[in-house]
Design goal:
Elements: E1 12-19, H1 36-50, E2 54-62, H2 75-85, E3 91-94, H3 106-115, E4 120-123, E5 128-130, H4 142-175, E6 188-191, E7 205-208, H5 210-224, H6 229-236, H7 241-244, H8 253-261, E8 270-272, E9 280-282, H9 294-315, E10 330-332, E11 339-349, E12 355-365, H10 366-369, E13 381-383, H11 384-403, H12 409-451, H13 459-513, H14 516-526, E14 527-533, E15 550-555, H15 557-563, E16 581-582
Parallel strand pairs: 1-2, 1-3, 3-4, 10-14
Antiparallel strand pairs: 4-5, 6-7, 8-9, 11-12, 12-13, 14-15, 15-16
Helix pairs in contact: 5-9, 11-13, 12-13, 13-14, 13-15
């Protein structure tokens, strides 16, 4: 039964309808049932006509989720608020209060924006008026303020409940071995085989496309043989496989990678919940869905994981395959760009008439390699032998000095005192957090007393107290998390100092006996980066001859901290061991 408000007669009214999905805005042609927007419109118009208002228009928000899309991005709602400011209408009618917003903090704000501009808001299903201010300018009652907050909460909670219902429905579909909707992977198509869901509606089924299934088998076969993903892409892009890809152009890295990780191909529907639990649900194995065996799928996952580990090693600067000792952590001191080993082959004719190749190995600035010479005013190349020798002349004495450092009791006590202090402070914060949680529970209980009329709190103070406690709880959690991180970092720093000191005692001996490959690893344990530069560039360029070349060593932070123990020179740049070296 529609409630009649005599003072609404003759006022200008607009109804606002909203659905989260565009497909909810039309008639269901299969069942003939009305979808959401026609139903909302009919109920809103019934309320408007019963109260003899002038229906001057309708605003439709189609495909807008009021729980995910904030007010700032809801174009139609913002336009409606602007129309309210211009006094173009007097009443806004919505199907239910969650049509305005399902974001708890925004719901009362939207009410206020309309009310402040003289627009009254009515809920068509309950014939109820929602307001934060009266039309005469007085504030709404305390009860109305509390109810608005509760409406915002219930709207947000309804959104969460809907998400949980959808999730449960999809879990049931997966458990029953049914297609749950949405996209489907390469190699399949959808067909109506007469299967029905729990509500009796027809649902599609994924079926295999034989010619595309052969491409899937080929990709997994290549992966099992040790092909990298990029290698598989190259193979698939030659021949008929290229014409079968979904985009009709060519296979890409991401499409092949996703294919190789998709468990659907070995016969399992699956569904991952995007929440803190991050759980994945699987159906029983379905023979009509399987293109490859589970054993092949598992084998490919191991191969891909092995390739990824090898890739990490290849990208590790400590084990680069270049000729230079510093390859991977050497940079141009003039422009900051990385430098890489480069070899120049020059034919040389001997007196006996034979020709031999003279190979010169050099470090080259990458900006000059890319044709960006104007961005670097230093030399373009430096002799590898000369630079590596200069680096060794600095690093070996530096490490020898580290090996002679002795840790005192005061050194360890300094770290231990810091860690103990952090732990004590964290314990205090954890006690405070427990107390604030207890206080918050008490305030929540007070809400029940408020609605029964037995509370000494007024609603505004109660709301502010709740918000304050929640804010303080979040602040405590952040401080506890920060203290845990500081504890961890301090402990790690102490352990690194000890480790470097111990390793330094055998480092020089290992280095002198090591291969170039092992020397790079040992060097990077101590050195963070090397910079090579020239004070100026000569008009007539003669490699490494006209100007002095400056080699700057930047050691690991832990090594520098250890070096300063007992060092009587505060400035690193002034120390004979730590300073930059000229050749």
């Amino acid at each position: 039964m529609v409630k009649i408000y005599p003072d609404l007669e003759g006022l200008r009214a607009i109804d606002s309808v909203r659905v989260s999905l565009t497909k909810q805005s039309s008639m269901n042609e299969t069942t003939g049932a009305k979808d959401d927007i026609p139903v909302q419109r009919e109920i809103c118009e019934e309320f408007i006509n019963a109260n003899k208002m002038k229906h001057i228009g309708e605003v439709i928000e189609s495909g807008v989720s009021a729980s995910k899309v904030p007010l700032a991005k809801r174009r139609k709602m913002l336009e409606l608020i602007e129309r309210a400011k211009r006094r173009e209408f007097d009443v806004l009618v919505v199907f239910k209060h969650d049509r305005l917003s399902r974001i708890q903090e925004e719901y009362p704000l939207i009410l206020k924006l309309f009310n402040e501009n003289g627009v009254r808001i009515f809920i068509a299903t309950s014939s109820e008026e929602k307001r934060t201010t009266h039309l005469k300018g007085a504030n709404a009652s305390a009860e109305e303020g509390v109810m608005n907050s509760l409406d915002g909460y219930t709207a947000a909670q309804e959104s969460q409940n809907m998400k949980e219902r959808v999730t449960c429905g999809q879990r049931v579909a997966i458990r029953n071995g049914q297609y749950r909707g949405g996209g489907y992977p390469f190699g399949y198509e959808l067909a109506n085989l007469g299967h029905k869901n729990l509500k009796g509606g027809y649902i599609n089924t994924q079926i295999i496309i034989p010619e595309k299934a052969e491409v899937v088998k080929k990709a997994f076969g290549l992966a099992s043989e040790g092909y990298s993903i990029r290698g598989i892409v190259r193979v698939l892009n030659t021949g008929e496989s290229r014409t079968l890809c979904d985009n009709g152009e060519a296979w890409g890295y991401n499409s092949v990678r996703n294919m190789l990780h998709n468990v659907t191909y070995c016969g399992y529907y699956h569904f991952k919940i995007n929440d803190d639990s991050n759980r994945t649900f699987y159906s029983e194995r379905l023979d009509n869905l399987a293109i490859i065996s589970k054993d092949l799928f598992d084998e490919v996952q191991k191969k891909i994981a092995g390739n990824a580990k090898n890739s990490d090693k290849r990208n590790d600067r400590t084990i680069t395959q270049g000729h230079g000792l510093c390859a991977g952590f050497i940079y141009c001191g003039n422009c900051g760009a990385s430098m890489s080993p480069w070899s120049k082959n020059t034919p040389y004719k001997k007196k006996d008439g034979t020709t031999v190749q003279y190979v010169a190995y050099r470090y080259r600035c990458s900006k000059r390699t890319m044709g960006r010479e104007s961005e670097c005013n230093g030399q373009s190349t430096y002799g590898i032998v000369k630079i590596d020798s200069a680096v060794e002349k600095q690093v070996i004495p530096f490490v020898t000095g580290l090996s002679k450092k002795e840790f005192t009791t005061e050194f360890f006590d300094g770290y231990d005192k810091q860690i103990i202090g952090f732990k004590a402070e964290r314990k205090e914060k954890e006690t405070e957090l427990a107390q604030r949680h207890k206080a918050l529970d008490g305030l929540k209980t007070e809400f029940a007393f408020f609605f029964s009329g037995n509370s000494i709190w007024n609603p505004i103070d109660l709301k502010e107290a709740l918000e304050l406690q929640k804010s303080e709880i979040e602040s405590c959690k952040a401080e506890i998390s920060n203290l845990l991180e500081v504890e961890k970092v301090t402990e790690e720093e102490k352990n690194k100092m000890v480790s470097i000191n111990i390793n330094a005692r055998t480092w020089v001996d290992k280095y002198q006996k090591a291969s170039i490959y092992e020397k790079k690893q040992l060097m990077y344990e101590i050195v963070e980066r090397v910079e090579v530069s020239t004070p100026k560039k000569s008009a007539v360029y003669v490699p490494d001859a006209d100007d002095k070349v400056k080699v700057s060593i930047f050691y690991k932070a832990e090594a520098m901290a250890l070096n300063k123990l007992g060092c009587d020179i505060n400035s690193v740049e002034s120390c004979s061991i730590c300073s930059q070296y000229f050749i």
